[in-house]
Specification:
With 234 residues, the chain is α+β, with helices and mostly antiparallel strands. The protein contains five helices and 13 strands. The strands form three sheets. A seven-stranded mixed β-barrel has the order 5-12-9-10-7-6-13. A four-stranded antiparallel beta sheet has the order 1-2-4-3, covered by helices on one side. It has a two-stranded antiparallel ribbon with strand order 8-11.
């Protein structure tokens, strides 16, 4: 780990811990997040974790940039991950079907695997939540097996139904809200991923782990899923 501090804005600094995405980074990221929250205390406006960085937005009326850097340096001193502190574990039911997962065929063709094997491999793995972004409650997760990795579709959809589960490169995610999007869609979850009544608004937070569990259509509907078909664009 090679900690560097970069300027983002007059009241915002980026703490870069790593250069490459890796699940092994997360315990260090969580430890650094905790130290920074403790160090800045009431002077912290926001702390935004990502794959390899932590963006620190602080109160410029309370701390000058030099003092903010000193707080960061102190927080990173003798940093070590705490094995006892980890995120929550989630199991998200997913209906994998061509009507709601039109890129299943594309991923099957790219990987050389039958559709059933694409589904099995995607749902057998536990994924790390690295960051939230793009839309409220949109959790960037990984890493999917290299054989399932696929670039975003050439022409993004104008409308992706909420709950759609997709792959982009070695990332996987579920759309919390209806929105445009260009990920390869495999299926759909009925889980409520974003809700203002939830603590933090998002079901998932960086540091959590997620496993997708294949369910049939009847169970998907019983759980409140929307089976509106999604057209294939790729």
């Amino acid at each position: 780990m090679n900690v560097r501090v970069e300027v983002v804005a007059i009241d915002c600094l980026m703490v870069r811990l790593f250069d490459a995405i890796d699940e092994a980074n997360m315990p260090w990221m969580l430890a650094a997040s905790l130290r920074l929250r403790e160090g800045f205390g009431a002077h912290l406006i926001d702390l935004v974790p990502s794959y390899t960085t932590l963006m620190v937005h602080y109160d410029l009326m309370a701390l000058d940039p030099l003092h903010a850097r000193e707080v960061i340096a102190q927080a990173m001193t003798d940093l070590s991950p705490d094995a006892a502190k980890s995120g929550r574990q989630h199991v998200l039911p997913v209906w994998y079907d061509l009507s709601v997962g039109p890129e299943l065929t594309l991923l099957s063709r790219r990987s050389g695997l039958p559709v059933d094997e694409v589904i099995r491999r995607h749902s057998q793995r536990q994924y790390q939540v690295f960051a939230l972004g793009f839309a409220p409650g949109f959790a960037f997760m990984g890493l999917v097996e290299e054989v399932l990795a696929a670039p975003r579709i050439n022409t993004p959809r104008k409308r992706v139904v909420a709950g759609s589960v997709g792959i982009a490169e070695r990332q996987t995610a579920a759309y919390p809200l209806e929105s445009p999007g260009g990920w390869n869609i495999l299926g759909r979850t009925p889980a409520k991923l974003f809700d203002r009544r939830m603590d933090g608004y998002s079901l998932m937070q960086p540091g959590d782990t997620v496993r997708f569990e294949a369910v049939d259509h009847a169970e998907f509907i019983r759980l409140g899923g929307d089976d509106t078909a999604l057209e294939a664009l790729a």
